[in-house]
Known about the structure:
This protein has helices at 11-24, 45-49, 63-67, 130-145, 162-177, 206-216, 321-339, 383-402, 408-416, and strands spanning 3-7, 29-33, 38-40, 59-61, 72-74, 78-82, 87-90, 95-97, 100-103, 108-109, 150-154, 186-189, 219-222, 225-231, 234-240, 246-253, 256-260, 263-264, 296-298, 352-357, 362-368, 376-381. By secondary structure, it is α/β, with parallel strands linked by helices.
Amino acid sequence: MTHIVVLGAGIGGMSAAYELRGTLGADPEITVIGEGDRFSFTPSNPWVAVGWRKSADVQMPVAIHLGRKRIAFEGVGAENVDPDNNRVLLRDGRHVVYDYLVIATGPRLAFDEIAGLGPEHGHTQSICTTPHADKAWEAYQRFLDAPGAIVVGAAPGASCFGPAYEFAMILDRDLRKRKLRHQVPITYVTPEPYIGHMGLGGVGDSKGLMESEYRKRDINWLVNTKICAVRDGEMDVTEMDEDGQPRKAHTLPFSYSMVLPAFTGVDAVRHREGLCNPRGFILIDKHQRNPAYPNIYSLGVCVAIPPVEATPVPTGAPKTGFMIESMVSAIVKNIEADLNGRHGDAEATWNAICLADMGDTGAAFVALPQMPPRNVTWTKVGKWVRVAKIAFEKYFLMKMRTGNTEPVYEKYVLKLLGITRIR
Length: 423
């Protein structure tokens, strides 16, 4: 019997496992390998970090729900991928042999690239994982007893800017509700060349929109900026000019800080020649297939995608939730074709859709496709976006519990936006 292994039990990996089972039926053996026993809906982490959600609200056990679809689960994590022998070595010494491997690990968080960065061995918080968001909430509660300056932002090479924008505005809203905002200067620090760039070269009038929203909320910003080092209560940053040369150095004091790091590929794959680029991201062709190992597919944050444009301080291209689901659909179609003796030629559409909570309202960003030139690009602000994001949280957790990968009403919503998953 064909054995398909999905490496990763996050948004991409869980979606891939369910869609593989739904499309291919009962015959293939499917195994998911995850880190730990719980699925986390990571887009809700900014809410967890300010106490608007508990981690239990956005997490669920994996094995029981996958088991209902006859999908096996290994939660010990992967030590190494051995593509020459078609196997994944697990951290407990066992190995799992595969016919097809779908890599959906998400990223390694490269806090180590900047001295003092990160919640484990540094002085900044993170919302990249739900356990990190729990720690950020603990630190925020201590901060509320002695408010001071806040620094929110992203490190050079970061590719996921949306949560940082969200978190700055969520903090603003929460502090206003607590009548503490007047005691807390907030600064947003980013490698982006302008506010609203988002690693996408802007979406519609995202620059004007984000500048306006930050001004309304009295949030200051520094762009084209490298974070150089972090100490307890201080951050050294350097503004760069258009040629990427140092222009002005700052030491920013803070009582609380959340910084999104740059990403690399995870340790289990990032040193494998032919599988990854120098940063450890999985190399894929337009069918999500690795050129060196054609029985390996990959999707999500762990895939190698070039930046949308060169910027004075390095930035990466984001991989949004809908883009990940588009990649899932293409992979499943191509494995199905291969199993039926045909050449799989499905391609993901790579359309970028982002719903951002702004505390008391929201912003929607749509870029079709993500890489310019685009057929559609627009940005809209309104309370309906915040409601839509909350609804999406509930809907996606329901999908993960039931294994229903594409309910009918999702198809109608995407159709209204003019969006398709694959071509």
